[in-house]
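Troubleshooting log. The previous run stalled partway through. Resubmitting the same three chains, unchanged.
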Amino acid sequence: MSVQSEISAPSARRLDSKALAKLSIRLGAFVAFGGILLYFALTARGFTSPYNLMTVVEQSAILGFLAFGMTIVFAGTGTDVQRGGIDLSMAANAGLCAAVYAIMMREGYGNALAIPVTLCTGMAIGLLNGIAVVTLQIIPLLGTLAVMNIAAGLELTLTENTVVPVKTPLTKVIAFGSFMGISTLAWCLIVVSALLVWLMHFHRIGLRLYAVGGHLEAARAAGINTGRYIYGAYIAAGLLAGITSILIISRLSSSTPGTGLMLLPILAAALLGTVFSRRFIPTIGGTLLATLFIGFLANGFQLLGISSYWVAGVQGALILLVVAVTSFAKRN
Amino acid sequence: MTAAIEMRGITKTFGPVKALTDATLMVKSGTIHGLVGANGAGKSTIIKVLAGIYARDSGTVMVQGKELGAITPAGIEAEGVHFIHQDRLLVPTSTVAEAIFLRNEPRFGPFINHREMYRRSAELLHQYFGLELDPRALISDLSTAQQKIVQITRALANDAKILVLDEPTAALVKKEVDNLFAVLRRLKADGLAIVFISHYMAEIEEICDVVTVLRNGTDVGVVTPSDVGIGQIVEMMTNRDTSEMYPRRKAAIGGPILSAKNLTVKNTFQNVSFDLHQGEILGVTGLLGSGDKELLQTLFGEIDSDGGEIILNNAPVRFRTPVQAVSNGIAKIPEDRRAHGVATGLSVGENISLASLDQVSAKGFVQLGSEARNVDALISELGIMTPDRQTLVKNLSGGNQQKVVVAKWLSCNSQVYLLDEPTVAVDVGAKVEIYNLMNRLATEGKALIFLSSDLEEITEMCDRILVIYRGELIGEYKHGEIDSDQLLAVASGATIEERKSL
Amino acid sequence: MSIKASAQNTKPRMPVSLETFSNYAIIAAFVIIFIAFSIIADGFLTGENMLNLVSNKVVLLAIVALGMTIVIGAGGIDLSVGVSIDLSSMVFIMLIAAGYAGAIGIIGGLAAACCVGIANAILINKLKINPFLATLGVLFIGQSIQRLSTQGGVPIYLTRSEFSATFEAIARSNFLGVPTPIVVMILCILVVYLALHRSVFGRYVAALGAQAEVARYSGIRVPFNLSIVFTACAMLSGITGILLSSTVRSYVPFSGDAFLLDAIGATFIGTAISAERRPSVIGTLIGVFLLAVMRNGLLLIGWNFFWQQVGIGVLVFCVLGLSFGLKKRSE
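Second attempt completed without errors. Output:
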């Protein structure tokens, strides 16, 4: 025999204050985003020129694609980065793919062969990540770390740490072409964003992927083949890295060492993006906004004459702020 | 009534351990079929075999007349068998609608039809539970009862023919349990077969048409609860005499060791005053939200008090953190043992000495010899069943894990023990062990505060009982002055006249 | 008849050999690799090579990895070790360049590292940010600090002879016949070993690493102990920074970044030798030596630097796969 209760729905009251807190944080994030853009628009000369805005969007394409890949991995493996998942190899993967493409073009293989091989390279690295995390059960932090070393090493052996120049009609189109007044890179960002938003948020694949990352046991009990989904997430991230590598080459007209340094901004974008989602989880839309924000922030600093050395620190402080605030909201 | 589930001769071994030996479970449609057994009897194993989580070694499984080969979670769901697990296996960041329709999402071409999903979720929730739950609400924002409802709704949305509920009432209050039972009866009338696994004998008696009893990995009987009564069922489970259920002790109560004077925590409880004596088992009970749990939390420093004082050993004390409480000799056996009581990844020895390392250390270094002696002594004293002190706690049974928690406090000579629902989710045999442990602690002169919502064990085991209602201490009874029915009435706020009429 | 026999209550174990093998996989791998290189690499097994290996490759990584071991043992992670290394290096070199004595420089460097540790502790304890994200944020901020302090990353070279005395004293002297850096490393190993495996603090760390909530409910002061953990890690990284600068007689910004991944790798490789996959000093040292031996051996058999990277990545991958994969199979 147990005891009755007259408190029937404490959750109703809890829901209100908690929901309010979450809403105000999201609102605050949007306001901050808008406020900072407004500030730049008012104080930084040339910020609002179409050319400048377009440049930022283009620059964001590369970071954005890679951050989307990280978002997909987060979605499928959980954002609690110590226990859940991460893909540390994304930036190195992009660097490797760029090297592959550049070398193939240099050796005269042509786009018809070079592009598929490049994309396959990206997916192969993703597959390796999947093997490490799913089959070998190595914790993602460690597994993708090892794969990152492999990818970075392979890139170095291919390029011998030099710049490999590439110039083909395709890269010219990507770098300089435009369609209906919007540059190719921007189009790439728009199209891929739309595609991924559909896949992750309006298709059952995305719903099930989020379930796998949200609660592995629950997803398994619902009959989802969790291993397949996690493999898929890493391979998709690898594919995105491959696609991005071609964009990188287009922008730089070459394959350059140092792509691996993008890892931190990628993490920043994917993590900051959570504040824009209702559930404070990584989303494509949130990541896109965060990527653009990071881009506009750096751009605004530049136009205002603030040293770019501050950028990294500001990104770090933002991450801390967002995390502290969202975890506070989630707890209460 | 057709046979919904027929499991015959199921055997499952894990290495040298025989979890199931030739076990049989036959469930008919249109019935609520209870499944009971002590921990380790094979209840969860046989269910996991059915769920496709374990592969059976031998035996046949037929669902609705169809024989099944190897079972997978997706496959068994396709056969119409849905499991409502004890650990609410729901994705915290998903919405109610998403949880209900996971893997069966309504579609609109290549898109998920969100609007349809929300509409049907609301419809189902209203139809079966009369509940106006927002389909867009996040699972993490729901109460335990609401999450269970979502789980069941998922099963119903997927045309479940057979529902298996594993400890469905564990975190529910009476009103929610009544609601659930009303739904189950309705589903039974609709022709579903329901398997109901529980430790709560009273509920088994109330809701189940027929009960299969498991013991030692095999079925020892199928009985009708209304015919045989709980006592008989428990005897079949444990093969022991149930009159030994609540061990008695000769109480030797000493002087007061802890007193609360007008203790208050804003919006939770106010002006609670009582004395706790050495050698005494003081029961505390109340409805969910009455403030009884928070009273214990305040005594342990998890919550800071807003008014009044705590007097320990004749000196006023104030605990702002558990650290302070512990250093003053207060111990707490927490309700969620695996989250707060023992570190399952550490060994038995490490857990036991965790709170008392200063006693077995010199200049900050642990003296392994003295530690080992202490630990071994406690293991044998409390009868903790473990191969050795290096065994990881996660390999121990629930009852033994609870003993490790007690041993931890014994080894630092705590004087006051706060026990928060120590026998929840513990099987009958282990419960008796815990009662014996409590008696022993009291006999040794410790002071115990025993919080429980199981009124029978409170009335049997305690020397005195405090009743909290809406944050006020409204009753204090000596052992024998009140029985569990009257206690329920008091805790529920019945007036004195109403109580007298019982 | 009360509780079931313990056999029923204890999780059944697979053949002992598989699980034990997974624990010894790393050690076996190390021995095999060592022997292999002894055979195929000229000059590998010479005293000079070994000494060089230890002095240059092992010492610095070992000290950082010890700090990482403490943090991972406590259930966290510290991505800012590179920042601690670099900031201590920066302050140390700047003080020396300004004419202060070596001792002042050392104190200044360690203090800088200490600040990083305290910053981490505040973010984790007061703002309740999880260690990965907190130290990630500090990593970002540390990059900015370095760029701002050095006009974008310009190294400070102090190769003039007026400074050499200090650097010699730290990096090139001998203490009882053993190079001073190695002595420092041995001291660090001893201290961390005693702290983690023999002291009360070490038990608290283990409890935090296993289940922090349980530690709190058992009366352990969680914020206090976490602060010590992160500060200790930062200090050890600080020591590394000073040794590093003394060896190269300069402060090169961002040189600490290279240590982060190897420190994490070494610590986790080390967890493979314990049945519960817990970090340990011995394990971490094995990990450090494994990485160092692999690099050295590959270099000696003529692989260029780039193929070394690949080789090490693949070897680490295989070793981890063997250890984690076998462990999973045995469950």
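Takeaways: Residues 180 and 210 of chain A are 36 Å apart (CA to CA). The first strand of chain A starts at residue 164 and ends at 165.
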